[in-house]
Design goal:
5-stranded mixed sheet; Tumour Suppressor Smad4; 6-stranded mixed sheet
Length: about 550
């Protein structure tokens, strides 16, 4: 028995495909996007579209459209509307003859008219261009089709009996729900055996476009609401204003982190320190998501991760000069190959620190760049061998300094108005916000760090809302900071992948601490236990301790 086929006809109303006129695509499933696959509507030359932006289905002659993932799709009765005022779809919508569809953000993407759908063979030949189907229409076995005129198949009846028995036993729906979640829920299943136990960054070419169920509520709570409040822009809460690209990277990294026991174990180990940082941020009026910065930097001062090749150190990985700027004492430091003790006197490290800082190995760096050298440990590039006084290693003092630094960026007018203040503050901790005001030794001024590149990006992209700034930069795979790299974006590769790592770590920390240590953390975190936290398997503290013991014993 062949499957009934309904085809669709559409006409592009904008862009390079307008000249094509009406085009027919074979149903019952038609994908639309920049690279939709065989038989789909390939929208080449249209800006701001995902490879698969939307799917139109025509089962039984009832056409509907649905966005793929978080892609933006809008539907209106006709094309003469202000697409800015049309709400993006959050699920499927029925299509009516001659209705208009806009794919992508208003001002970008593609607008088309859905003409109609009819059964195969009903199209009149002539001016309509028919897009041939690749391969035959699939055949469905009668045993796998339920129709109103032939009853139900045996496998379906058997399934109902099993479900009924489970319900009678009082376990029906919980068991079925559990079985469904088990097949899709990220769970801790492995240990990372590398020296630092860190999860790798997301490969740009392998980005998973499927968002975890409910993660949009976390995004609203920890990212969108603080951004909208400080910018005084309530429209930022509208779903089509979100930085979907950054959200997708964050969701992908949440799934990866959730599968690693090292991550959960470290969260358990540092719970008191994490709670202290959260409290300090709250008292300073700063977003709690910033508490994950010291996790990304040093896993909260974990042994072996307390230093960097640039001589940044400890919880927040402060450079010596930046620590001096925020009031931390770093003095009388021993530098290999130098007799005199060194203390920072400037408020910013020199640009290109591997070439000009007093404490880095300039010769080795040049050899690395020329391909004639390599670094085996961080001490090869960082020549600082300890300081008589170093308050970077004090959690309370360094957190106080970090709050000064983060707060200065958070309250910058450019950042406040950006619509992406949270993301920019996180990125600035890695990149620096604006060191151009601080003299350095040798007498060189920084080109401006993130401040300068952000302003330049705004000037070059006046049609892109600055709320999308960080996500728009994630275009190349991460490389170590000491390797020179250019990928034609406003952020270096390391910083591109820094922000979503911080966000993903905090989202999961909220789940873990709200479940296991609710009395030590903000009470509002508990609302997420029944929200996005259900889309990952959050272990109990007892499970973490038991699994760590088994791992140490090799069982």
């Amino acid at each position: 028995m062949s499957m009934e086929r309904w085809d669709i006809v559409v006409v592009l109303l904008s862009g390079p495909l307008v000249a094509k006129g009406e085009m027919v695509f074979p149903g019952p499933v038609v994908r639309l996007g920049a690279n939709p696959g065989a038989g789909g509507l390939e929208l080449v030359g249209y800006r701001g579209l995902d490879e698969r932006q939307a799917v139109i289905t025509t089962y039984k002659g009832q056409p509907s459209i649905e966005p793929v993932g978080t892609a933006q799709v809008r539907v209106a009765p006709h094309e003469h509307v202000d697409w800015e005022k049309v709400q993006a779809l959050r699920g499927s919508a029925l299509l009516t003859p001659n209705c208009a569809i806009h794919l992508g953000r208003p001002g970008r993407g593609a607008t088309l008219r859905f003409v109609d759908c009819r059964e195969l063979g009903a199209w009149e030949s002539g001016s309509i261009e028919v897009i041939e189907q690749v391969g035959p229409v699939p055949e469905l076995s009668p045993e796998n089709v339920i129709t109103a005129d032939r009853g139900v198949p045996k496998w379906f009846v058997a399934g109902l009996i099993v479900i009924a028995m489970a319900v009678l036993g009082g376990i029906g729906l919980p068991v079925i729900s559990s079985m469904m979640r088990d097949s899709t829920t990220p769970r801790p299943v492995r240990w990372i055996e590398s020296a630092n136990g860190q999860v790798e960054t997301v490969d740009v070419d392998a980005l998973d476009l499927e968002m975890l169920d409910g993660l949009d509520k976390a995004w609203m709570a920890f990212i969108v609401d603080p951004n909208a409040a400080i910018a005084e822009r309530p429209e930022l809460r509208e779903r089509d204003m979100w930085d979907d690209r950054l959200l997708m990277f964050t969701s992908t990294q949440v799934r990866e982190l959730a599968s690693v026991w090292n991550f959960w174990k470290r969260l358990d180990d540092v719970r008191e320190d994490y709670a202290h940082v959260v409290d300090a941020l709250k008292e300073a009026g700063l977003p709690s998501v910033l508490a994950a910065i010291p996790y990304q930097e040093s896993q909260y001062n974990r042994r072996g991760l307390q230093d960097s090749p640039a001589c940044a150190k400890s919880w927040w990985m402060f450079m010596p000069e930046v620590a001096h700027r925020v009031g931390l004492e770093v003095s009388n430091c021993r530098i290999e190959g130098q007799e005199e003790l060194w203390s920072p006197t400037n408020f910013a490290a020199p640009p290109q620190i591997y070439r000009y800082a007093a404490y880095t190995n300039h010769d080795l760096y040049e050899r690395i760049q020329s391909g004639n050298g390599r670094m085996s440990t961080w001490d090869d590039l960082c020549l600082m061998r300890g300081c008589e006084v170093d308050e970077r290693t004090d959690l309370y003092r360094s957190t106080s300094g970090a709050i000064t630094l983060l707060g200065d960026t958070w309250r910058e007018p450019l950042v406040m108005d950006s619509g992406s203040a949270v993301q920019i503050v996180v990125a600035a901790h890695n990149r620096g916000w604006d060191d151009s005001m601080f003299p350095t030794s040798p007498a060189r001024r920084s080109p401006g760090n993130l401040h300068r590149t952000y302003v330049m990006w705004k000037q070059r992209h006046p049609d892109v809302d600055t709320a999308l700034f960080v996500g728009e930069q994630i275009r190349c795979n991460a490389t170590p900071q000491w390797e020179q790299n250019s990928c034609n974006t406003a952020l270096p590769p390391e910083t591109q992948h820094y922000v979503y790592n911080v966000l993903a770590q905090h989202f999961l920390a909220v789940c873990y601490y709200a479940r296991n240590y609710p009395d030590s953390f903000p009470s509002e975190w508990e609302q997420h236990i029944d929200g996005y936290c259900q889309s990952v398997e959050v272990p109990s503290s007892a499970q973490v301790v038991d699994e760590a013991a088994r791992h140490r014993s090799g069982r």
